[in-house]
Amino acid sequence: MGRVAIVTGSDSGIGEAAAIALAEAGCDVGVTWHQDEDGASETAAAVRAAGGKAAVARLDLTRLDEAAGVVDGLAAELGGLDVLVNNAGTGIATPFLDQTLEDWQRVVDTDLTGAFVCAQAAARRMVAAGRGGRIVNVTSVHEHVPLEGAAAYCAAKGGLGLLTKVMALELAGHGITVNSVAPGEIATAMTGNEDTDPRTVERPGIPLGRPGHAREIAAAVAWLASEEASYATGASFVVDGGLLLMAAKANADTAS
Fold first, then answer.
1. Which is more confident, 171 or 249?
2. pTM for the complete prediction?
3. CATH classification of 3-255, choosing from 3.40.50.720, 3.40.50.2300, 2.40.160.20, 3.40.50.1100?
């Protein structure tokens, strides 16, 4: 029997690329969407074209009482669950002093609490099945470094990074690995570069000089979901073109 993966927020961008990469690696894939049903249908078609079965469901992570049921429903439809990719996320650009509680709650519910609910539902299924599993949380470089105007986003992604480590500790005995992938700037709708070849976009502030492609993040996700990554757990895999290294350069420039 083939493996089953669920990728949240897989109607576009990194989630779409991850769903396709997992299908190419032999997985059947549960696809979720929040606003773009057509995008989810296109992802499902690409999964099927890659040889996998696909199931599609709407997932609104601000409706936390429904999230576990979506995971369970997709797993039941596809016949099990071996891999969960927590990719669904959102963010806003608002100064800390102007941040409303409503907007804060929406970002934290989606990026952190929603990921917790989905991961818990997935892990319970994996434990019950007794075959181990893989959970990959898509965070951000802002799991590690702050960003002005993104208090809620940074708090949620930083929290998800530490949640990843706690889950890794507690689930290791069940053969379940838990890791995060922390992308830098990726050419997606969220960064205003969707459908753009990142090699044509200049980013002097990034050592590699460009944004990343969603497929480059998907490749890391697919590896973490594979048997080859069976000894990796509790780690944050930063895929950012060297962006985090720029603190060292800034320090050197200041000292010179």
1. 171
2. 0.93
3. 3.40.50.720
